[in-house]
Design a protein that fits this description.
The complex is a heterodimer of chains A (163) and B (429). Chain A contains 5 helices and 5 strands, in the order βαββαβααβα. With 163 residues, chain A is an alpha/beta fold. Chain A has a single domain, classed as Rossmann fold, CATH 3.40.50. In chain A, strands 2-1-3-4-5 form a 5-stranded parallel β-sheet, with helices on both faces. In chain A, strand 3, helix 2 and strand 4 form a beta-alpha-beta unit. Chain A is elongated. The two termini of chain A are 16 Å apart. Chain B is an alpha+beta fold and 429 residues long. Chain B starts with a strand and ends in a 9-residue tail after the last helix.
Chain lengths: 163, 429
């Protein structure tokens, strides 16, 4: 049996969304911060720290939908660096509500066209699974906190972290 | 620093995605651009054609952290459009929802985003538990956030995208046991909030901004009622606020920017305290007396101190309200008309928030407009970054030190990029 590891290597990433699940994540931290400080090595978490690296991760949590070719490239890079990838919240899982422009009528579409062109948006906003393999999903707007905690527990066991 | 090329593509410890590009040649600043990198989600377009009943929950999704501010502002705009006068109890519950939001949201910013700058740490979680002071702050942070979260949860249903507030009232009210527990939790965190105020009172960070404060000011200090105050003695009625805002296009930013009557201005906690510290709760004024002597202030870093003082005010006023109110289930107030135009103006955590809606005879939204705090602060943030860079030019800072100084200033403003990039500006005819 492999020797237990000290910390779970985690990345937390946000793409096109309102970042509600990041807020829920920091609320869950209220009761659990001492455990998470001990068990989690945040390799990349823009909301928490300045020194972020995109290197080997056990788990990458990604909230938000994909709006641009650059974002699509970035989620592929994250996928290549992590062993387990979890889609967090409705926009990452289904695209909505961030993908609401996909359903706009032609007139509204023309109204926003110059912005889509100026900032190099994709033609359609898409959920993560359209670009990369997703290993687990935490649905909800914001994410379902119990489902997230269950997946985190699963990851701690899967990657043999010393509790 | 005679030559600098700094491109920060990912500003950290802020809400959402922003970037900063700096170019200095021969000791002169050629470029200093603060841009919001969030991709637009076009809420202003998406609201058109939807039934008004779905609008507040849709617009709450503009922003995760200040979702309950968008929710209440949208409810206010719809209630005004439909001729609904909320009950006294609904007003009280809205005030409590705002207090829960302010406590949680300000604490998130102050501890997780701003405090690492004060203690020269990369992350709040990297604070040293073996240091008595840092150990105390770690515990204080999560205790305060949890108390704010609890208040929001018993009143509004949850602290993010709340479910109890709706057009015409609240679908659920807190029980007596929940109220009792909330009062206990709020009283328990008061010493921690006083310690937080002390930390930011002692902090010597400084940048004098030229931007003037603008805020919705009411008596007593609150976030939902009053008149807009800004330059001079004028008090602008809520519904006239947008007439004083000039939309400015920054071609490199995904967000709309504004000036107030053509001038630089700031919204948010610093603006609120500069304009109405006299109306704070009496216990807040007593126990934050020394800190309040620093206001009015043009030091943008005092925005952090102002947020800490607002946490104390929200705590003191909520304790009073909870102890003095017996909540009873009320029926939702019905619309008195089918169509109309309504405007909501509130003070969100980061400043003045404006929602306008036009509802047609069929109950569907014809069009709407939203102006968010960070859009209003965007030009002042960029102007102050340039001023700070000018101050730093004589020093020989390496890239990391310069990045730290620039990010520290951006964080003091507590910008919210999710809010700022929610829509495409459409001018009303």
């Amino acid at each position: 049996m492999n020797k237990p590891k000290n910390k779970l290597r985690v990345g937390w990433f946000s793409f096109t969304c309102c970042e509600d699940s990041t807020v829920v994540f920091t609320e869950l931290m209220n009761e659990r911060w001492q455990d998470w400080k001990r068990l989690i090595d945040f390799r990349h978490a823009r909301a928490l720290q300045t020194k972020n690296v995109l290197d080997e991760m056990d788990v990458a949590f990604i909230e938000g939908a994909v709006s641009s070719p650059e974002q699509a490239e970035q989620v592929k890079k994250i996928r290549a660096k992590c062993k387990m990838l979890v889609a967090i919240g409705s926009c990452a899982v289904t695209g909505l509500p961030s993908s609401q422009r996909n359903q706009f009528d032609e007139k509204t579409r023309q109204e926003i066209e110059f912005i889509l062109a100026r900032f190099n948006h994709l033609d359609q906003v898409q959920p993560l699974k359209e670009f990369i393999k997703v290993d687990a999903e935490v649905p909800g707007c914001p994410m379902d906190p119990d489902k997230f905690l269950a997946i985190l527990d699963l990851a701690l066991k899967k990657f043999n972290i010393q509790l | 620093m005679h030559q600098v090329d700094l491109s920060l593509t990912e500003i950290t410890k802020v809400e959402g995605s922003a970037a900063l590009d700096i170019r200095v040649r021969d000791g002169k600043i050629e470029e200093c651009k603060f841009s919001i990198k969030e991709f637009k989600r076009f809420y202003t377009q998406a609201m058109a054609g939807k039934h008004y009943a779905s609008l507040p929950q849709l617009l709450a999704r503009i922003c995760g952290t200040c979702s309950n501010a968008h929710l209440l502002c949208s409810i206010e705009s719809c209630e005004k459009a439909l001729g609904i006068q909320p009950s006294v109890q609904s007003q009280v519950l809205k005030d409590l929802t705002m207090s829960g939001l302010m406590i949680r949201d300000h604490a998130l910013h102050l501890y997780l985003f701003a405090l690492p700058d004060v203690y020269k740490r990369d992350s709040f979680l990297a604070f040293d538990e073996n240091s008595a002071e840092e150990h105390q702050l770690l515990h204080d942070a999560f205790d305060i956030k949890a108390a704010g979260n609890y208040l929001a949860t018993i009143v509004a249903g949850r602290s993010v995208h709340a479910i109890n507030p709706t057009i015409g009232g609240f679908i659920k009210v807190p029980t007596a046991d929940e109220v009792k527990e909330a009062v206990e939790k709020l009283k328990a965190i008061r010493p921690a909030v006083l310690r937080l105020i002390k930390v930011f009172e002692k902090c010597d960070f400084s940048l004098i901004t030229q931007a003037m404060p603008v805020a919705l000011v009411g008596q007593p200090f609150n976030f939902l009622r009053g008149a807009i105050k800004g330059f001079g003695d004028q008090a602008i009625p809520e519904e006239d606020y947008p007439k004083h805002l000039d939309h400015v296009v920054l071609p490199y930013s995904q967000a709309s920017a504004y000036k107030f009557e053509g001038k630089l201005f700031i919204v948010g906690s610093l603006a609120r305290l500069n304009l109405s510290q006299d109306t704070l709760h009496k216990n807040t004024k007593k126990d934050a007396k020394n800190a309040l002597k620093l206001f009015p202030s043009q030091n943008i870093f005092h925005n952090n101190l102002a947020q800490a003082i607002e946490i104390l005010h929200c705590l003191d006023s909520s304790i009073d309200t909870l102890e003095q109110t017996k909540f009873v289930k009320e029926p939702l107030i019905k619309p008195t008309k089918k169509s109309g135009v309504g405007m909501g103006v509130i003070e969100a955590p980061r400043g003045t928030l404006y929602h306008k809606v036009e509802i047609g005879e069929d109950g569907k939204v014809i069009k709407g407009k939203i102006v968010v705090p960070t859009g209003q602060n965007q030009i002042s943030i960029e102007t102050d970054l340039r001023a700070r860079l000018t101050e730093l030019l004589p020093q020989e800072l390496d890239a990391d030190a310069l990045r730290f100084e620039m990010e520290k200033l951006i964080r003091a403003y507590d910008p919210c990029m999710s809010c700022a990039a929610h829509f495409l500006q459409v001018n009303w005819l």
